[in-house]
Design a protein that fits this description.
Jelly Rolls, 4 domains, 10 helices, membrane
């Protein structure tokens, strides 16, 4: 056949260590129909400071693949919530082949068409809290690329028509496809009049949605006569691909005929007439060709080149063509993103008759609904059983309802189909099912009531069970509980939801408490972070005693908002918020930086109010730009230290000796205060992690408040027995220098005060 190659790529994204599904990077691809091979080229490279990260350590990268919906991953092996079905996915781990770059290749032969999702993440780290901008962080970037090769002009088989084909010696196989409409209970593919050098040296393979693989349903025509391949309960509204493959080493030309028969379960006594689909099958895809333009039963479908088609009589259906029951639709009511309720007409109470199943369909929209959780709830009305031992079984299947015998209703499985099982009875009258990230399309729920006997389950007699049925789509499972937050995430134009857990809780719905913080631990951490701010009381008392009223007001502001910010910032249930979280965080950060600013300005002994206003404006601007940026916070502090250094240098030059002049001030106040502040900064920048945050940050509060008490300079208070200083009359100004204040002594009353006034 003729192959066409398509190429798709995505923008590189920075990967993060795995904590929850909210920390992964999700990539969305679309594979077209008739694709025979898909090749993913997985490119990963390191960056550090805008250059190649040759010095960055090698960290393994895990990539997950899934068709139809995002992968439900569990790399930390946590517990899922009860009644949760976990769909499977394929995982691949990339290793580094070069210092700063690696490439992995993942091939999928005959992939399913439609949406494909890739999820990638780094392994979980130790949870270190790093200061933004302190050092160049190693970044691991991931970029997937997709190359697909698809066949064009695949021959279409029309039900009830014979297709003649001749396979040349240089050909290995022929590929066909047939569209299976709704209400089809069986697909029968048969090879007729097969003539070759060695009998009928052909393999017959059948697969839904994509070309067959080596492990697809197959039949060796050498060993079976007639060569018929039957498939019960096929997927509705999908293409089925038929591959006729020649045995290797067979010489000469092989001629054969292929015919497909579809059994219409809405009319069990007849097969589907040639080219006469039921009313439910008219919604065919455009790729069916020009068939949609033909009048029903007026003319035969067009014959493809090198083959002929002939109609054949419609045989009667076999025992497999079991009667299918009416499918009741549901009404879709969209309340919000991933908040959809499916209402049943004349429901929500449903009557399940004893002689047949009750079938319902739930339609999930492509792309829009695969990022949430499909929830199903069955509740049995015990009073409707009339004392009988009745069990109602529910089978939820994708793209085709399960309408087989009693054993299949109990197990919810057949040879070619598997679904999700629910059951309710008089003992357990409630059953729930949750499917995170469900595949889109039609989901069919078949309800069947059976009575328990000594020989197993048998159909009930004259007992109609009544069940309450509730089906809905939600963003997360139980809204992630009290220890989690349901987040709505976006990757390009695709939306999905995931839980972000806190207080040590883990799992898909934040229900795994293996590492959870106890209530006593949460209370202790909250009290430590809040009560450690009481250490600001001594600096406030020192400031008031020294008449630094503005500084004392700033310290009180910092103590108040730091206390209530940490009371509101707790991850568990010991939380108390007096304002919005964002307001408390801004005031806490502003108060902390303003405390540093006013303390340094007071140490410089500069009194203009304009400096305090300048600091407040600069710090507010920096916090509004980035509250966690290093230089946005460090810049104003360094500017204040620069002002203090200039003031101290000017005094040192003017007085011709070091300022402050006394060694006691340096030894007992400035050096201890500077060391305490430096220790606090080192703890904050290099030691603090998520596990030790509550006590390391409490120590940070104690050290910062203690350093302020040491660094705040004393203010000299003139003695009451001294009279007013004489002032010289005349023009000019008078500059009074208080020597005691310049010396920086704590208690000015110890020595006499001598003022030197010059004009």
């Amino acid at each position: 056949g003729l192959f066409v190659t398509d190429y798709f790529t995505r923008t590189p994204r920075k990967l993060s260590p795995f904590r929850s599904f909210a920390s992964i990077e999700l990539f969305h691809f679309h594979i077209p129909e008739d694709t025979v091979i898909a090749v993913w080229n997985l490119i990963t490279f390191k960056e550090q400071g805008g250059t190649f990260g040759d010095q960055c350590p090698d960290r393994s990268i895990t990539v997950y693949f899934r068709s139809g919906a995002p992968s439900v991953i569990n790399p930390l092996h946590t517990h899922f919530p009860r009644d949760t079905a976990v769909p499977g996915s394929f995982a691949l781990t990339l290793t580094w082949t070069l210092p700063n770059r690696t490439t992995g290749v993942f091939n999928v032969t005959s992939p399913l068409p439609g949406d494909w999702f890739l999820a990638a993440h780094l392994p979980k780290d130790e949870g270190k809290i790093s200061v933004k901008g302190l050092y160049e962080e190693c970044q691991y970037l991931f970029q997937p690329q997709l190359i697909v090769q698809r066949l064009v002009n695949i021959a279409v088989l029309y039900p009830g028509y014979i297709t003649e084909q001749s396979m040349a010696p240089h050909n290995r196989s022929y590929l066909y496809k047939v569209f299976v409409p709704s209400y089809t209970s069986r697909v029968l593919v048969e090879v007729l009049r097969c003539r070759g050098a060695e009998g009928c040296p052909l393999w017959l393979r059948l697969r839904a949605k994509a070309p067959p693989l080596h492990n697809s349903t197959a039949l060796d025509c050498r060993e079976h006569a007639p060569c018929q391949l039957a498939l019960d309960l096929p997927f509705w509204q999908h293409w089925y691909y038929v591959l006729v493959e020649k045995h290797p080493g067979v010489p000469g030309t092989v001629s054969f005929q292929v015919i497909v028969q579809l059994t219409d379960c809405s009319r069990p006594s007849l097969a589907r007439p040639p080219f006469l689909p039921s009313s439910a099958s008219m919604n065919m895809p455009h790729s069916f060709g020009s068939v949609g333009g033909l009048a029903l039963g007026d003319s035969s479908p067009p014959a493809s080149p090198n083959s002929t088609k002939h109609p054949v009589p419609t045989p009667t259906a076999s025992a497999a063509g079991e009667r299918c029951w009416p499918v009741r639709p549901t009404l879709r009511n969209e309340l919000d993103t991933f908040s959809v309720h499916f209402y049943i007409f004349f429901g929500p109470n449903v009557s399940v008759p004893p002689d047949r199943p009750a079938v319902f369909v739930i339609n999930l929209l492509p792309v829009l609904d695969s990022g949430g959780v499909l929830n199903l709830e069955l509740r049995l009305n015990v009073s409707s059983l009339c004392g009988e031992n009745v069990t109602v079984f529910g089978c939820l299947n994708h793209e085709v309802p399960l309408m087989s015998g009693d054993n299949a209703s109990v197990t919810c499985e057949t040879e070619s189909l598997a679904g999700f099982l629910l059951s309710v009875n008089a003992t357990a009258s409630l059953s729930r099912l949750r499917i995170p990230y469900p595949q889109t399309g039609s989901w069919y729920l078949s309800l069947r009531s059976l009575c328990a006997t000594q020989h197993g389950f048998e159909p009930c007699i004259n007992v109609t069970a009544e069940v309450y049925l509730r089906a809905y789509l939600s963003p997360c499972i139980n809204d992630c509980g009290i220890y989690g937050q349901c987040k709505l995430l976006r990757t390009n134009n695709y939306l999905y939801a995931a839980c972000e857990c806190k207080a040590g809780w883990n799992g898909w719905g934040c229900t795994d408490n293996a590492e959870a913080f106890s209530y006593g631990f949460q209370l202790l951490s909250t009290l430590l972070l809040c009560l450690s701010n009481v250490m600001f009381v001594p600096p406030v008392a020192i400031a008031v005693r020294s008449h630094y009223l503005l500084e004392a007001a700033v310290y009180i502001f910092t103590m108040f908002f730091s206390t209530f910010y940490h009371a509101c910032d707790q991850p568990g249930i010991v939380v108390f918020c007096i304002m919005e979280y964002d307001v408390l965080q801004f005031c806490d950060f502003l108060g902390s930086l303003m405390s540093v600013w006013v303390t340094v300005i007071a140490m410089a002994r500069l009194q203009p109010v304009v400096l305090y206003l300048l600091g407040a404006m600069l710090l507010s601007m920096a916090l509004q730009m980035d509250r966690h940026g290093l230089w946005n916070l460090l810049g104003p502090s360094l500017f204040a230290l620069g002002i203090m250094a200039v003031a101290w240098t000017a005094r040192t030059i003017r007085r011709r000796h070091c300022y402050p002049p006394t060694w006691k001030r340096w030894a007992f106040y400035l050096c201890p205060g500077a060391l305490i502040a430096a220790a606090a900064v080192l703890l904050y920048a290099f030691v603090e992690t998520e596990e030790n945050y509550f006590y390391i940050h409490s120590i940070w509060h104690l050290l910062i408040a203690g350093s302020v008490g040491f660094l705040l300079p004393p203010r000299a208070k003139p003695s009451g027995r001294l009279g007013p200083l004489p002032r010289r009359k005349g023009c000019g100004y008078q500059l009074c220098v208080n020597e005691q204040e310049e010396l920086g002594l704590v208690d000015p009353a110890v020595a006499s005060i001598n003022s030197i006034c010059t004009s």
